[in-house]
Amino acid sequence: MTADPTLATIWAFLIAFAVFAYVVMDGFDLGIGILFPAFGVGEERDSAMNSIAPVWDGNETWLVLGGGGLFAAFPLAYAILMPALYPLIVAMLLGLIFRGVAFEFRWRDPGHRKYWDLAFTGGSTVAAFAQGVALGAILQGVSVSGRAYAGGWLDWLTPFSLLTGASLVAGYAMLGACWLIWKTGGMGQLHAYRLAGRAGMLTVAAIVAVSLASLMLRGGAYRDRWLDMPNVLFTAQVPLLVTIFAAAFWWALAKRKELMPFLLALGLFLLSFMGLGISMYPYIVPTAVTIVEAAAPARSQGFMLIGAGMLIPVILAYTGWAYWVFRGKVGAEGYH
What angle do CA 32, 34, 40 make, to 5 degrees? Predict the structure, then answer.
């Protein structure tokens, strides 16, 4: 049985959507963990935790969907990328476990709360950094021989991947601060405005640095895709929009807008995600394996698409309902 290019493309977009949904929805609560040491002990930290308490665990549904979808719809890509990224995947999962345990136990074991807060910060930072390094490792390419990973245990460890790891930590911190601007008030909100401005500057600088560094990867293959005519007429719109969104972001912070900074931060992530797609498409393992080459047989993808067509609307519905129910601002004592 052979792959169907249309089904393979549909599944590629579904997995990309799941990954972006995870980055959006889990990014801000990882960002809160990253920023946690900057919050005042007591009310400010409790308010930050209460703001994500109803939604944080459900956000990781999209991570499961993305990983499971990759395994089922693109088994060859899964078989190549997982061995290349094993240390990072393990680090990410351990970070998420530590974060989840710390989230629950800081309320139930107040005598050791400072240690649980440290575990919450450490788990969030490790998970975010591992995700960013994994992204950089995929973008810089992995060694493939035949239909298998042919590299070493630490091939992912390069200056570029460390840059992408630090960049994602900064981006998640920006999302977390903007979330708190929207969901909290008083002195905590004012503190969030300051943190959002600093994290925003780091994030925009990181976007520029990663963009320039990626042009040097893969023998200039990405550079040609972005800068050759007539491609540049279309790809130039992405950095232009990044500039506009960044300017609007600082304007919104200066004007003390509440929801707008969060939406503009999401816009910066979306534009970065689009840039990643421009660099990689149609490859799922850059310059080695295309989406169609990695795809499962058409019958398998068609059958799974029926299930995805039923499940994804359900996930969107209950996720939207949870955010709607807990749409108000929050204080240390809970929602009001």
Answer: 65
Give the C-alpha separation, 281 to 4, whole Å. Answer: 17
Helices of type H across the chain: 5-35, 43-52, 56-59, 61-73, 75-108, 113-140, 159-183, 186-214, 221-227, 231-235, 237-254, 260-280, 291-294, 298-325
Alpha carbon distance 261, 253 (integer Å): 7
Task: Report CA 278 to chain centroid distance, whole Å.
Answer: 17
Measured CA to CA, the distance from residue 166 to residue 168 in angstroms comes to 6
User: Is the omega angle on the peptide bond into residue 5 within 30 degrees of 0, that is, cis?
Assistant: no
Supply the pTM of this predicted model. Answer: 0.92
Write down how long the chain is: 336
- Can you tell me the distance from the alpha carbon of 2 to that of 292, in angstroms, rounded to the nearest whole number? 9
Bridge partners, residue 149, by sequence: 144
| 274, HSE (Cβ side, Cα atoms, 13 Å) | 15
Residue 89 vs residue 331, higher pLDDT: 89
Q: Is 74 exposed, middle or buried (0-12, 13-18, 19+ CB in 10 A)?
A: buried
Q: What tens digit of pLDDT does each residue of 5-56 get?
A: 899 999 999 999 998 988 888 888 899 999 999 988 878 888 888 888 888 7
Task: Say how far apart CA 24 and CA 5 lie, in whole Å.
Answer: 28
> Rounded to 5 degrees, what are φ and ψ at 329?
-75, 165
The vertex-263 CA angle with 103 and 254, nearest 5°, equals 100
Q: Is 314 helix (H, G, I), strand (E, B) or coil?
A: helix
Rounded CA gap, 29 and 171, in Å? 12
Contact 125, 98 (CB under 8 A): no
Question: Tokens at residue 187, please?
Answer: 């002195």
3-state secondary structure of 37: helix
Q: How many Å apart are CA 291 and CA 77, to the nearest integer? A: 8
